[in-house]
Structures are given as C-alpha cells and as structure tokens.
Amino acid sequence: MEVLLDFGARFVHQLQSPTLAFLLGGILIAALGSRLTIPDAIYKFIVFMLLLKVGMKGGMAIGEADIGAMLLPALIAVFMGCLIVIIGRYTLALLPGIRTEDGIATAGLFGAVSGSTLAAGTVVLESEGIPYEPWAVALYPFMDIPALVLAIVLASVYLKKKKDGAGEKVAIWPIVKESLQGSALSALLLGIALGLFTNPDRVFESFYEPLFRGLLSVLMLIMGIEAYARLNELRRVAHWFAVYAAIAPLMNGLIAFGLGTIAHYLVGFSPGGVVLLAVIAGSSSDISGPPTLRAGIPTANPSSYIGSSTSVGTPVAIALGIPLYIGLAQAVFGA
C-alpha cells in the first residue's frame, strides 16, 4: 500500500511539474479555441538554447571524468540507448492502431535520459550512503544521443519506404548524416564540444542556467497546442502507450543493471554506479528528447511520447525503479 501511495504522490507531482503542467496548459487553451500562436522562429531559437545548454553540461561532465575507467560503462550506455529504441520499434510501434512514427518517437524518448530522474537517483544514493563514481552522472549523453539519433533514423527510413514503396532499397548513411546535421542534434553536439573542449562555466552559470526552466516551459506550451490538434489520433490507442510507459522503465532499468553488474566484475564499476546506470536506462527524457524528436520526426504526435513519458514513465522510474535497483544492489553486492 505504501508503494502505491508513493506512486500516486509522484504521479500528482508530475502533473504539477513545469514539463507536464505547461503541456497540459497548451492543450487546454487550444481546446478552448484560443488563437495563441508562437512564431516558428521563436520556437527554433528556444530549442537551440535548450539543447546547447544540455550539451554544454554533458560536455563539462565528460571533461572532468576518468575516461579510461568510464570506457566500458559508456559503451554499455550507448548499447542501452540503441537497444531501448530497437525494442520499442519492434513492440510498441507494431501494436494495433499505433502509427509507426509515434511508436518509434516514444521509444526514442524512453531511450533518452531524464536529468531530473538522474538527479533523484544521486540524492537517494547519497542518503543511503552508497558511493558511486563522480563521473557516473556523465554517462547520460552516451545513452541520450544514440537513442535520439537512432529513433530519428528508423522513423526516417520507415517514412521513406512508405513514400517510395516497401520494395525500394533505402540508403541508410544519407539519413544518418542528415539526422546528425539537423538543427536539434547539431545544437546538442555543438554544446557537448563546447563543454568538453572550452571553458564555458561562467557564461553557462550566468546566462544559460537561469534561462533554462523558463524557456522549457514555453516550449512545452507550444507542444501542448500542437498536441491538441492531434489528440483524436491518440484517443483510440492511448492504453497501449500507458502499458508501454508502465513496463518499459523497469524492463530497461533491469537490463542495464545486469550489464552494469558485468562491468562491476570486469572493471570494478561501483555498485552505486551500477544503480545510476539502471536509473538513466529506466528514465525517459524531459529536456533534450521532446524538442529533438519534434524537429527530427515532425509527423509524430507529441501527445503520445510526451504524455506517456511524463504522466506514467517518470513516476514509475522514480517511485518504483530507484528503490528496486538499490535493493538489488544491496542484495547482489552487499552495498
């Protein structure tokens, strides 16, 4: 009963979070017939600013990490980001009534990483006195970017085949290249390079960090208005997204926990690091994912991937996933 109450509290908290609250606000004003529109140029500027900030933060974290010790866990993170998208492509995206690009975008969002869920995981580990490598928090770009790139590539391949005919051979590399050169991923990769190879701390703390939450709230408002226009597409298959969002975080986290355990025995990856790897695999992006997917898979319905992530996926990942992985770590490693 206590677990259910905790989950309910997390669910209500997510409804009040800026990410979901502004999304729902956009849906509400669109439903009431508001003519509010945000110019596309402003939308693109907001996406650029947000992803540049996220990239810089990840690049700075990688720059401070022990690259040698980080190598195997980073490779596992890359593998997990791709695996989550592939599993979603051949499960959720094939279910009755679900548009394939909606299923792929949702899988991409669940393959990408939530910074807030990662932060919650570190807080719980510290409160439990379980040590972890300082660089473990820098694993998220290694899972985040491959998941988003792969989701965009798979959706692009599907849509191109649909347009040109199922029998036509599709060249993969031009699609990968085009995805990496897209505005969203370019901003993210540029941010990582700046954080890794320059020293942007002062401008990051004084300019990008203070603006971040405000810009994110406007972005969610825009996506809420857009989502309302596509709400009818989602109503008949919403239960499939809810089922996926309830199962995927725990399944993904447990797979990552198993792979992290292998890294523990091979290279001494700490039990706390294994837990954090599972936490980021079980999370779903609330920052980098939505704008990247909106730009990279414009035909996908934002209400499918954002709604399933923020309303179900994140509460499951935090309220059920984090205690589960810590309990496993204590049972397996005696942490």
From TrEMBL:
Keyword field contains rRNA-binding: no
InterPro entries, per the entry: Sbt_1
Transmembrane regions listed in the UniProt entry: 20-38, 45-63, 69-92, 104-125, 137-159, 180-198, 210-229, 241-267, 312-333
Keywords per UniProt: Membrane, Transmembrane, Transmembrane helix
Name used for this protein in its record: Sodium-dependent bicarbonate transport family permease
Lineage: Bacteria, Pseudomonadati, Pseudomonadota, Gammaproteobacteria, Chromatiales
